[in-house]
Amino acid sequence: MAPASPRNSSQGSKAQVIASDDKTRLSMVAVSDMDNRAYILQSLTDPQDVLLIDVPAEPETLRAAVGADAAPSIVITHQHHDHTGALPELTGESTRLVGHPLDIPAVEEMRGVTFTETVDDGDTVDAGGVTLDVIWLRGHTPGSIALATTIDGVQHLFTGDSLFPGGVGNTWNDPERFATLIDDVESKLFGRYPDETVVLPGHGDGTTLGDERASLPEWRARGW
Questions:
Q1: Dihedral of the alpha carbons of 19, 23, 29, 34, in degrees to the nearest 10
Q2: 3-state class of 28 per DSSP?
Q3: What is the residue-level pLDDT of the chain in tens, covering all 224 positions?
């Protein structure tokens, strides 16, 4: 079963609400010609407490979605250009910018920004009215991360480009990188979270772990 269909939101012309409870509201914005997804978590008790997960492109669209007066924290799931394109326009001297230390140098060089925090496997990020668990998933990039949190009793996983409907992320036909990624995804995601967990990838539609679990042997056998 796929995640609940997004519905219209007043957060901006392109923002769609995915889930909410009494603490937070989760929205998604689709941007770029690669169907990138930026995710927004906004505290319902402190409207200025906003988190953006990836900022692929279209900074004005993202700014409208979070609110013109908000100064969101930003977590980057991995270093690739299509997940960081709006960083120069959305960051300032006081912006909280979070990423994994193995991917941060590439982003700082490419975008001319400075990260304020590093996170690694097992760390947490408090922002947007929730606490998110950080999960290091090696393979798509050295420092790719996923983030996990519970909203309205349902576990949500923000997987960047490490897990999609139908398979894991691109490892460029490198058997070692694929083995590392499929091992991490199987043990750290499928091995920890229940079938009803909602998977929200960095591109395109979401899925659930239950919808994908039976395909793990097929993914391993084909090598991508």
A1: -80
A2: strand
A3: 333 333 333 344 489 999 999 999 999 999 999 999 999 999 999 989 999 999 999 999 999 999 888 899 999 999 999 999 999 999 998 999 999 999 999 999 999 999 999 999 999 999 999 999 999 999 999 999 999 999 999 999 999 999 999 999 999 999 999 999 999 999 999 999 999 999 999 999 999 999 999 999 999 999 99
Contact between 103 and 144 under an 8 Å Cβ cutoff? The reply is yes
Compute CA distances 178 → 144, 152, 164, 215, whole Å. 13, 34, 14, 15
**Joined tokens for residue 129:** 């009215």
The Cα–Cα gap between 148 and 157 comes to 5
Q: What is the DSSP string of 128-148?
A: TTEEEEEEE--SSSTT-EEEE
CA distance 47 to 30: 22
Say what the pTM is. 0.93
- Residue 84: closest CA among 65, 100, 66: 100
Cα-only R_g, the chain? 16
Residue type at position 58: E
**Which residue type does 173 have?**
N
Residues present in the chain in total = 224
